[in-house]
Amino acid sequence: MEKFQIGIQQIMTETQNMEDASMQSGDIPSILALAYRKFREGELEGGIRELEKGFEIDFEHREVVFALKCAQYWKDRLDTSRTLEGDFERAEYLISQWKAFPTFYRKLGSLSEMCTSSLKRLVFQTCLGLYEGLYSAHTGSKDADLFLRIGRCHKALGSYDNALKYLSTANGMKREESEILGELADCYALVNEMQLSKVFFREAFFLNPQGVDLALLESEMILRLISKLEEFGFAHPYLAEWIPVYGVLFGVFNVKRELRSIEYGKLRQGIYMLEMELREHPEKKDLLVPRLLNRYFWLIDHYLSTKEEKSKIDEVLLKIKHIHPSIYEQYTK
User: Fold this and answer.
1) pLDDT digits (tens, 9 = 90+) for 112-141
2) Distance between CA atoms of 32 and 67, rounded to whole angstroms?
3) Which runs of consecutive H residues, i.e. helices, occur in the chain?
4) pTM for this structure?
5) 320 touches 293 (CB < 8 A)
6) What pLDDT, in 10s, does the model give residues 75-117?
7) End-to-end C-alpha distance for the chain, whole angstroms
């Protein structure tokens, strides 16, 4: 009888322990939610302390482990940023580390978008404060590069109206800057102004594909295009050069505009220079061929809009066929 009672007690104790463990595990979602809230509010170390509580409850919980590693990544980098001289340098360093962050967290084998999005707010809110401090310190002096960066931070934080205001101002001060045009295009896509977005993306990738910071683009339209090109095997820096080519082929960059006479002259001159360079330096074809293709597309669009003779269009099509038969087939089918 005594042995039977001891057995019952053991079972009850084990059951209670299991219930306690279950209750503790049930606290983890609350712990994670609180940690992420602290991240969003800029309290990185407070969020880490919450995650450590979750780690004590279940040290194998995948999201807790993932979040702790990501938080430590940013603690190290924020600590490093404080050793740098100058707010601009601190902000630029943090932005550069944000661009490297996906490579880090994808290696962890787990992903929490709640975690990464809350850390994104922490990082870009920090950078915004640094950039705005510089703007205030210079009594509101107008600097296109600074406005670009303030606008980019607002975009990352979801404050699209403010982002468009600063980016448009930057564009007005520094015309034909592909980095600014790319950010404007991205922001217009995020507010569903697709016509404007396509116009600005096409302009940005015509002027200088390498100037568009692909790592900071967020709109689904452009991310899908980039993802597709990565599937095709394109990698940096060549990937950026092919974006406008496949943007036309896939119907993404389908908003065209008529060129002014001075732009038409520059386009013809640019094509001639690229053709010469390709003949003299065939080893650079990986960069030059997509640049030429993009310009041929623009030239054909111009001929169509101005109702030029078909023979002129056929001449350009023949050039496309010569330098890239596969693109010619896709373009003409």
Assistant:
1) 999 999 999 999 999 999 999 999 887 666
2) 8
3) 2-40, 44-57, 62-81, 87-106, 113-137, 144-156, 160-173, 178-190, 194-207, 220-231, 238-249, 261-280, 285-305, 310-323, 325-332
4) 0.88
5) yes
6) 999 999 999 999 999 999 999 999 999 999 999 988 899 999 9
7) 89
